[in-house]
Write a structure and sequence with these properties.
By secondary structure, the protein is mainly α. The chain is built from two helices and no strands. The longest helix is centred in the N-terminal third of the chain and has 18 residues.
Length: 57
């Protein structure tokens, strides 16, 4: 799930960068890039995965 969120954030950052749009200081392409990298790191760390660790009987 975090990988999909990261892809959407990266796409939004790319569109904002191409359009040279200045939305506000909170939504610059660099800020969105960092948010996308955070989501990607959480995905790679396994946060939010449905896999349960343990023994099944």
């Amino acid at each position: 799930m975090f990988a999909i969120i990261a892809a959407v954030i990266f796409g939004l950052a790319l569109i904002l960068d191409w359009a040279n749009a200045s939305v506000s200081d909170a939504f610059t392409p660099q800020t969105l890039l960092m948010a996308g990298l955070l989501c990607l790191a959480l995905h790679l760390a396994g946060v939010g995965s449905a896999t349960k660790w343990g023994r099944r009987r």
